[in-house]
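name: query_chain
kind: protein
chains: 1
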Amino acid sequence: MNIKCSFCQMPYTLSRVEMLDALQEMDAKKLSHYDAHCPRCRRATPVERKRMEMFFPNWREALKQFESEMKAHPQHEAPAPSSAPKPETATEAESKPEPAPAKAKPAGSKKAHAKKK
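structure:
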C-alpha cells in the first residue's frame, strides 16, 4: 500500500506484513485509523481503517495463513549485539595501516600575497 507523508510529502510503502499487523492492532483495540510512521521524518500519518481493508479485503484469512506458516517454520531471533567492543587480535592490529600525518599548509600565503599588491 502506497502512502504519502502528510508532513514531508515523501512517498513510502506499507508491506503486507505491516498491513496485517496494523489491521490486527486496529481490530484488537477497536481503532478507526492506524498511525503509519514516515521513514524520513518519523511523523505519524493516519491511515483510515476503511482504506486499509479496501487494499487488503481478506486480511483475516491471510492472518490465519501467516500464523500457520510461522508455526510450521519458526524464525529465530537475531542475537542482541553486545555493548563491549571485541578486543583486537595481534594479526588484525598488524594488518591495519598507520594513518599518514597531515601535511602542514604554509600559513598566511594568500594574505601575504594580497598585501604585496
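note: Residues 2-72 form one domain.
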